[in-house]
User: Fold these one by one.
Assistant:
Number 1:
Amino acid sequence: MSNSRVEEIREYDMEKPNLTHVQSVGGMTISPELFEKLYLTPKTPTAGDFRKRFANPTPLGFVGFVITDATFAMILMGWGGANSLSGVAGMFFFTGPVLLLLSTIFEWVQGNFFPMMVCGIFAVFWLSFGVLQLPSWGLAAAYSATGNSAEGAASVGYNAAIALYLLAWGFALLTFFVFTLKTNAVFAMIFGFVTTASFILSAAYWRVAMADYVMAMALQKAGGACLFVVALLGWYITFVMMAAEMRLTTNLPVGDLSHFWPATDVTLNEMEKNA
């Protein structure tokens, strides 16, 4: 068979929607289980060869998220006497969001729906929380009749508003947690703990609004502890993804959950017919 004919057959096989293996970076054929480990999303048919042409962007976003999350968690727990986020406010605008937004864009380009959503929501979360650390915006001062930031930050209205915001985030993250059950146990635990942390920190702001500062501090530290667990799990899964991309022979477990669900390497039309 001629080389040109072999190339035509190879291109046809790569374009078929119902795939049992996917071409990763460098043209290596990988299984659905390894694909899910690398991209944190079930393998689905996509048009084009972007996954072959571009590097895996998922670890990049996770590095930004984990560094920001770990720092945030340690400060919430008061490690080393830390009691303010003002000194590291830049991480809410650059370390986390920049890497997460870059990852979001390239996940979208490659057609990786779920990691695109994950990186996108965490990018805007860190940005929105970072704004709270900027006195120049005068957010807390707006809740004070005299324009005093410290007085506004202790007001009922200010703390209740943030509590409601974190409560809404808790339900959003809970929704994402449900879908992580189609990926792996480590990713699911990350969302389980970050959802719990969101509800706990919401409760901490409610206690501040009620002037119960002792309970508020206890809840803040509990929320920080949950986020620190998230950071540890995040570091682990980032290492797993980087190890696979760097072709390390160590096969670290993540608790694959995809085999409990129907195959995802089908088109939406086929899925609808089989429903």
Note: The first helix runs from residue 3 to 15.
Number 2:
Amino acid sequence: MPDVKRTIKIVTEQKVIDKPSGVEGFPLRKWNIQIFLLNEHGEDIPANVYSKATYHLHESFGKRAVQAVTSPPFKIQEEGWGEFDMTIVLTAMEKGGETTLSHDLNFQENRYETKHPVTFKNPKPALLERLRESGPVPGDENGKKRGEESAKKKKRPEKGVDMDQLAENLQRLHEDDLLQVVQMVHDHKSADSYTKNDVDAGEFHVDLYTLPDSLIRMLWDFSAEKVGKH
């Protein structure tokens, strides 16, 4: 699967509230943080490519120093008098990995935004489809979204091919077998197929849903046989 790059926007809001802070010269404030994904037009959309956001606050928050939020916009709200740096760990859906962001909580403005580039490495089909809701992914023709096209390809007329199982089989192959798979893909891919050979990283990426049915059948038969022998 191809790597997909997106941009996350963190929105912070804060205001002074009429409560004693206990620290002279530092008024008590109420603050909140929300997390959004930017689409291809730079507009805010729900960051539903993530299943969880975990906030690691200052240790002075005690039991609330680590807080997990499991639905967009992953809003957290607290009260305090001090500024501090925190980390936010975003967990992608479909076991798509974690991204750790650093965030500076400060009181210079009532509302401020920060943007962070993020990369989804080898996203699984369900995550890839969710990413398409925010814009094209590598391999999409002419920069257009292929949500409907990919949905059709998931319902392949080719009987006996489980695409998720195929992806798992390919990951379990030994190195020599993987080299044969790469050669098969090079020899039988179509003009619409997405492949990327990252020589420096020693990685080969392919979007299975862009491969011809005949090649999918070849990969299915080959990988099933090899995995069965392991």
Note: The first strand starts at residue 4 and ends at 16.
Number 3:
Amino acid sequence: MLPALVSLLLLRMPTASAQSPQYVLSNHPHAQHISTIHESAVQARRILNLSSIATLSTVFPHQHLIEPFENRPDNLGGVPIGLIDYYASCDPTPHEPTILAISIATSFRNARAGSNVTLSLRYHPPIHHPPPDDIYTYSPANLPRFSLLGHIEPVPASEVEEHHIDRCFFERHPDAVAWKPGNAIHHSWWARLVVEQVYWIGGFGDRAYIGWIPVEEWRGVTQEEVQSARLVGERGYEKARRL
């Protein structure tokens, strides 16, 4: 009886253009062009360049690694936490986000204790109110997002000076000048996320690549490609193809 009831409910569910919900998850033979891995890498690098705020995720260390001054609940060892943080895409490694690390902040305490780090980003299109007859183009489910997996390392002082990393970062985050290295509030230092893996979701599976982007592909994208690439909505409103 239960399988029959489930089948009946599925038959009554509304679908777009008489396609089943599974359609958006599969590489349908009549689907539009699906981005290649390299095209997806270019799009991801474009998002990294356009954005400057992302979610930095780390894992709490186990009890014996807790620093003496910490006051935290018990049994958090191995539990992940994601917090918003500033970043900037700066030379000489624009593919590895530059971060102004605050030593006392949870994310950087966890990283110092050995946690790997994930930076998660998503595309925020410039179109805020698309026409009501288009529910797909700017649906968050159809917009690209990705995660950069790796570890944090300090940026050498010589590199900060030579490539004007502080200027690059403060152009994106003027308020961050208040906690630049040497400030009187908190100890801070320039860091970068060394990217080791990239996981990409370009949108619905019938029109976008979903999967891992090799780190060599990620690093190999040129700044010219980043500057010339355009994401959905950057040229103005674009109506979605019907599902």
Note: Residues 1-30 have pLDDT under 50 and may be disordered.
Number 4:
Amino acid sequence: MHPLLLYPLYFTLTYTLLTLLLFALSPFIPACSFPARCLSAYLSLTLCAIYGLLLSLLLRPTNHHRLAQHLTARAFAKTMHYTTGVTMRILPSNTAHHLTASRPCVIIANHQSELDVLLLAHIFPPYCSVTAKKSLARAPFLGWFMSLSGTVFIDRTNTRSARQAFRGAAEEMLEHRQSVFIFPEGTRSYARGPALGAFKKGAFHLAVQAQVDVVPVVCANYWGLLSAKEWRFRAGEIPVRVLEPVSTRGLGAEDVEGLCERVRGDMLRVLGELGDTREGRLVGGEE
């Protein structure tokens, strides 16, 4: 075998053995569970990104590449369940239909940490694309997959460019009945309890411009399950709630601020109802 092919093989083998060793040590050294699950999560993400990249390439000639993110998300949810023991569940389950019945729509959710990729995996409906910072497009495998599958990349340092991207997204939504997912907080909160940062108004401007519903999604605070500062990463189930769609029909730019405040208030209330993990306890799971 050519030496250039051996290096990735050796790396993968070493990575896998190290991960398994850390998992084996976890019952005796609890701190080992954090790097073990981190390594498992990154490996799962990389493998699913490669799967999504190949899927996008296969589906693109038939113009079905907009399904790639949904199919890849489902694969990632199952992979994470088996490799880390972490899963999410929509409660009550009958509210999940809001994600597809309102198509096209703007789906928004609270943003806590890197684990929110798993939230996307569990709620991502068919014919939906995510928004992401422009720099992510250059990331190997993941960025390539996102570019090929219809991600809306936003340059946060350039307001004019960001507006053009949202304008293009609105046209894409109406032309292809393509929903869009956005984290309105814009950045991760790493909150230790039920809390929401200030919302940026881009998601609401997009919904009003396209005259489509806003579908809020609330993920329970999971600080008790994952905290990088405390080196804590446990298995468990995290509850998620999909709220009633909020119509933007007939609204204009002058209504965006009120719409944003109302939706944020509803999400904050539900976040409190879903639970508080400030004491470090799990959200529906076993350590």
Note: Confidence is low (pLDDT under 50) at residues 278-287.
